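User: Quick sanity check before I run a bigger batch. Here is a single chain. Can you write out its predicted 3D structure?
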Amino acid sequence: MTGLLIKELIIRGDVAKCLIVAPGSLVEQWQDELDQKFNLAFDIMTNDAIQASRTGNWFLEHNLCICRLDKLSRSEELQERLKQIDWDLVVVDEAHKMSASFFSSEVRYTKRFRLGQLLSEHTRQFLLLTATPHNGKEEDFQLFMSLIDGDRFEGRYRDGVHTADCSDLMRRMVKENLVTMEGKPLFPERFAYTVSFPLSPEEAALYAKVTNYVREEFNRADRLDSERRRGMVGFALTILQRRLASSPEAIFQSLRRRRERLEERLREEKLLRRGRVAAKQEIDIQTDIDVEDMEDLEDAPEQEIEQAEEQVVDLATAARTIAELEAEIQILKDLESDAGKLRRSRKDTKWTKLSETLQNNPEMFDASGNRRKLVIFTEQRDTLNYLVDQAHQPLDPLAIDAIALAPKPAGHLP
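Assistant: Done. Predicted structure follows.
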C-alpha cells in the first residue's frame, strides 16, 4: 500500500525526496519489495555509504532513502544532517516504537520519539505505519498522535476536556475485514485455545519463593536514589519473572548466572575496600546500558539482545552495601538449590501437558491422519535447549519427528 502511494505521488510530481525509516530487520525487505513490485530504487544508508559520501551528507546525494530506525535515533550527527533536507515524504514503519508515555505528571520522552518529532518538522507529508498504536492509555496515544499534529494534541489528554477524534488523520483497518479481489477473506480464521494445568507442589513452592524475592527486590529498588539504577533493577527482575514462567531450566540457569556474576562483583568490591570496614562501604553496581537502550535493542541481532539482557539480569541489583550484596547472594544460592532440585526431579508439569497435548489432540493430525508440522515459540534460549533435550529423550513417548526443534539456533525460536 505504501508502495502504491509513493509511486502515485512520484508520477504526480509531488515527491522527489522520500525517506523510509524502518526497524533494522526490515530495511532489506523494504528495498527488495519496492524494487520488485514498483520499480522504485531506494538506497539503504550504511556506515560505508556515509563515509564515502562526497558532500559529507549522504541524504543530499540520494533522493529515495531507507534508514534504520535506531541508527537515526541514536546518532545526533545523522539527525543534524537530516535537518538539512526538506523531505517531501517520510514513512515510518512500526511507528509505535516512536511512542512516549506519561509517568505521573511528566512525559518520558524516548530517543525514538525525539526522532519522530524531528522528522515531522522537516517533511511536508508524514506517514506512520503500525499495527499496534495503542497501549490502552488514551493520554499516551494522544501523545503519539502529536507526531502528526503537534498543535491539536498539545498537552496531556484529559477525559471530558479534550476530544479523541483522529478520523481525519488515521486509517484503521482490521485484518478480519480484509478481503481478496474475489471478496474472500484475505487471512484464514485463527482459533486460539489455552491449555491450563496445575503446578506441582515443588513448582508452586519455587514460584512463590522467586516471586517473593522479586517483590522484595522491587521494594528495595524503590528506595534507591538513582532513577537509572531503579529502572535497570526493575527491568532485570521483570526478565527474571518471565524466565520463571518459561521453564525450570530457564529459571535455574538465570539464578545460577546471576549468583555467579554477583559473587564476582562482591570479590572485586572487597579487594577495592581492603583495610576498611567493608560491610559499611556503599557500592554502586552499574551496567553500560540503560532501560531505553534495552528498548532500542528490540530489532538488533539476537546475539546482541541476549548479551545485553544477560548483562542487565546478572548485574542489576538493589544492594547498596557489601553486607546487602552478601545477603542477596545467599538468597540466590537457596533459590538456585531449590531450582536445581526441581530440575533434577524432571517434574515439569508444563512439558508433561505439552507432550500430552501434542500426542492426544485431534488437531495435531491432518485429514489423512498424518501428524502436522508444528512450530513451538519460546523467548528463552535455555528453554529452547531444554525442549530440544526433552523431545529427543529415548524414553519419551512423543515421537521425535512430531515436533521440529532446531538444536541451539542463533535465534530464540525452535
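Residues 7 and 13 are 10 Å apart (CA to CA).

User: Great, the batch can go ahead then.
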